[in-house]
Amino acid sequence: MRKKIGIPIGIIVAAALVLCLVPLRTVAYTATIDYQDTETYYETEPLEYRELDSFTTEAVNDVRGHAAMHGYDLPDEIVGWPDFAVYVVVQNLDDVLGTFEIRYTCVGTADKSVAEKYQWLVQLTPEEYQELDIKCYAGSRELYLQPHEIGVAICPQSGVNIGSDRGPWWSGGYEVIPPGKEVEKQRTVAKQRFETCYKKVTLLDYWLHY
Q1: How far apart are CA 200 and CA 163, in angstroms?
Q2: Backbone angles phi, psi at 65, to 5 degrees
């Protein structure tokens, strides 16, 4: 009598589950990886400088000794009274040369007698202000300075011709505009890269997706 050998259904099911659900195959995939990197960039920065001094024509004689103490000489083309000028002394503190721009404005009264008439008034009417005949001179000068060099700008170069009949009340304002230089800098930036990675998958997953 021939006997039949039977395989329990439970064993078959268990084997199928092992084949389909337990990770058995290794597959490759591409992943996006976040990372940080150092980036080089360039930025324009003004040259370092300092204003050593500033004065007007009337103070030139008093400043000569002061200038020598601070290590600079007044230029030969001194503007003498009755002309008017503003002197601006700038030192380049940087390690590169550059051209510094000095923008200036000189303002004063054109009529001496009228200026003397209103000199003690704090506030003027529009008519009085117009009678003063205010004059304004604006412009710019350039100083080409080597590293650590000191330069003197006369603003304006030949002065303002006030004249003996014009008002002695003059004043000047100025602004120093330094040149720029390119500076190399570094910064940390977030980036992404693609990498090939590996993982194990089940046979079922492999059959369905690979």
Answers
A1: 97
A2: -65, -40
Maximum Cα–Cα distance across the chain? 149
Q: What is the mean pLDDT of each run of 10 residues along the chain (210 residues)?
A: 52 52 68 85 91 85 74 80 87 95 86 69 70 82 95 90 67 92 88 81 64
pTM: 0.67
The answer to whether the CB of 88 falls within 8 A of the CB of 177 is no
Question: Rg of the chain's alpha carbons, rounded to an integer?
Answer: 42
129: which DSSP letter?
H
Residue 18 corresponds to which tokens in the numbers above?
A: 């092992």
Token pair of 164 as six digits: 């003996």
Instruction: Please tell me the distance from the alpha carbon of residue 83 to that of residue 89, in angstroms, as a whole number.
Output: 19
Residues 34, 192: Cα–Cα separation, whole Å:
5
φ/ψ of residue 83, rounded to 5: -75, 165
Q: What is the dihedral of CA 139, 144, 148, 150, to 10 degrees?
A: -50
90-126 burial code (b ≥16 CB/10 A, e <16): bbbebeeebebebebebebbebbeebeebeeeeeeee
d(CA 135, CA 128): 14
